[in-house]
């Protein structure tokens, strides 16, 4: 799995359905959301996902686990489930112990895109409607190999570290990680990181290096590698010189 940065845009609730479960006053619960298509997550296809009130989604099962450190305690006192975990904490310093006030879901693009929207507060005993934690997931019927995460609001972080990530539920490390601060947006791909390949199209500049002309083509989107580092993929093509490899 790898992650790319995508353009950040807020998600409107217009056209989305508010999920009524009758227990939004309980800060530790989860909601199962069935889908009418498969989601490929870490190489396994799922037809539903689980939204936890404590700032994570999981696959295979749901959990109400809370107040655990990430990612090292996910396999221990956490959900012990594969999923996507944001970094949040409450005013008392407890990690992943938030409250979900509203959960929306709905489709756009003629049913191709499923949107799941979480609105809540990082403090489990905050007043309902006091919202400072908002994020959205987008899943695509015609593209089961990737999905998007758009984080609109998130003020406080576990261990003062905004790093969230994808967990396989077994290992105490992230499969891939990301900054879960506000106004960020990512695309999660189920495959391997893209290779850096030669490409001769759309030259934007040239420079001479060791008697060789290197043609730089437009940047590919940045992506976040398995070590959690942002990488800019840029392709270089050797035009001529003394033995440099492209």
The averaged pLDDT comes out at 82
| Shape, principal axes of CA atoms | globular
Structural class, by secondary structure, is: mainly beta
Give the DSSP E fraction (strand runs of 2 or more residues).
Answer: 35-45%
Number of strands: 18
Set out the fold topology.
Blueprint: E1 2-5, E2 17-18, E3 30-41, E4 44-52, E5 56-58, E6 83-85, E7 99-108, E8 113-121, E9 133-140, E10 143-154, E11 163-167, E12 176-179, E13 184-189, E14 205-209, E15 212-216, E16 222-224, E17 230-232, E18 236-240
Antiparallel strand pairs: 1-13, 1-16, 2-7, 3-4, 4-5, 5-6, 6-11, 7-8, 8-9, 9-10, 10-13, 11-12, 14-15, 15-18, 16-17
Overview of the structural elements:
The chain is 0% helix and 44% strand. The chain has 246 residues and is an all-beta fold. The protein has two domains: 188 residues, no CATH class; 53 residues, no CATH class. A hairpin with a 4-residue loop joins strand 7 and strand 8. It starts with a strand and ends in a 6-residue tail after the last strand.
Could you provide a short overview of the structure?
The chain is mainly beta and 246 residues long. Helix content is 0%, strand content 44%. It has 2 domains: 2-189, no CATH class; 194-246, no CATH class.
Sum up the structure in keywords.
single chain; 2 domains; 9-stranded antiparallel beta sheet; 6-stranded antiparallel beta sheet; 44% strand
């Amino acid at each position: 799995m790898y992650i790319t940065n995508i353009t950040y845009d807020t998600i409107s609730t217009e056209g989305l359905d508010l999920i009524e479960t009758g227990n939004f006053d309980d800060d530790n619960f989860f909601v199962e959301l069935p889908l009418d298509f498969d989601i490929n997550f870490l190489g396994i296809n799922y037809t539903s996902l689980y939204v936890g009130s404590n700032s994570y989604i999981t696959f295979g099962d749901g959990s109400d686990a809370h107040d655990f450190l990430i990612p090292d305690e996910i396999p221990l006192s956490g959900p012990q489930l594969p999923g996507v975990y944001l970094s949040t904490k409450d005013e008392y310093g407890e990690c992943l112990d938030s409250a979900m006030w509203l959960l929306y879901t709905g489709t756009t693009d003629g049913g191709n895109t499923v949107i799941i929207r979480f609105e809540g507060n990082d403090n489990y005993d905050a007043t309902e409607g006091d919202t400072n934690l908002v994020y959205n997931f987008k899943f695509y019927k015609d593209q089961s190999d990737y999905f998007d995460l758009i984080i609109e609001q998130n003020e406080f972080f576990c261990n003062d570290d905004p790093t969230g990530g994808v967990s396989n539920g077994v290992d105490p490390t992230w499969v891939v990680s990301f900054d879960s601060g506000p106004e960020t947006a990512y695309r999660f791909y189920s495959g391997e990181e893209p290779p850096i390949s030669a490409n001769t199209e759309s030259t934007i500049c040239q420079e001479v290096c060791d008697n060789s002309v290197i043609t730089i083509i437009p940047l590919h989107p940045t992506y976040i590698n398995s070590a959690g580092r942002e990488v800019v993929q840029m392709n270089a093509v050797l035009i001529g010189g003394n033995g440099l490899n492209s």
